[in-house]
Amino acid sequence: MKKIYLMLLPFLAAACSSQGGQQTAVQIDAPVNVMTFNVRYDNPNDSLNNWNYRKDRVANAIRFYDADIVGTQEVLHNQMEDLRQRLPGYESIGVGREDGKEVGEYSALWYRKDRFTEKESGWFWLSETPEVVGSKGWDGACERIATWAKLQDRLTGKELFVMNTHLDHVGVAARREGVKLLLDKIQELGGSHPVILTGDFNAEPESNVIRQVTDTTNPEHLTDARTVADLVYGPNWTFHDFGSIPYGHRERIDYIFVKNGLEVLKYGILAETEGDAYLSDHAPVLVSVK
Questions:
Q1: How far, CA to CA in Å, does 159 sit from each of 52, 85, 153, 209, 225?
Q2: How far is 227 from 264, CA to CA, in rounded Å?
Q3: Which terminal CB of the chain, N or C, has fewer other CB atoms within 10 Å?
């Protein structure tokens, strides 16, 4: 019996090794879930849609959908603090767009600390002087900011370049020049890394703004994740103004763009409610990439 046991040991070791290899392969192949989410700034005039009533729903949605990376827009400092308390497994990157510290809206990035290591990060303003704190660009109505990070996947050791922003809602030149600056900065900072760009672009897919982002004649172009996803779920709109806009007039103005070899497995617009209660005046967008 002892001899038989000794003879079996190599086979058992091989079997265990094979199973371990399969588990590692599954982990290495694990997709990355990316969300873009305009959470709506904390506006006292929003009545029952005010942030105080929504903050738990917003945090729970991020956690429920297992978002590994989240680009958020319109986040004021008190909202950042609320989300940090409710998302202890996430690290945040970003500053207020007015003073480069805590004043004004953040276009903050969030990432799961158990999945990624932050290698580099930063931010710049969408203006003629992107390094000048609080600078307003071109014909823009507001200061606009972009936040970026190089994140190393703990499972694969590979790095992703992620950027998040919110384009101006008024300035035509501000959106056009803002896109050009974003693409230039992605090329400069991201290089050959797989790239993810999230944000509220205040423009529909057929607009000149989005065509500028996805123009294949420009070597710096990106791809709208929805157009290349293996599976698409949900409506074709993201902005609903807490349900007040009729369905036929709602617009898709929130995007996730990809570049440099990322495969988009799933794309969804999460237009759900809890009864009459909304997550935000925008529906978040979620993609799964590999």
A1: 36, 27, 6, 28, 19
A2: 9
A3: N
* Residue 188 φ/ψ, nearest 5 degrees: -70, -45
pLDDT by residue (tens digit) across 62-88? 999 999 999 999 999 999 999 999 999
Burial class (CB in 10 A: 0-12, 13-18, 19+), 245: middle
Q: How far is CA 218 from the centre of its chain?
A: 23
The predicted structure's pLDDT at residue 27? 52
Q: What is the pLDDT of residue 28?
A: 61
Please state the rounded mean pLDDT for residues 190-194.
96
Strand partners of residue 139: none
Triad 179, 180, 182: Cα angle to 5°: 60
| Contacts (Cβ under 8 Å, ≥6 apart) of 220 | 183, 184, 186, 187
Give the Cα separation of 258 and 194 in Å (integer).
8
- Quote the pLDDT of residue 4: 41
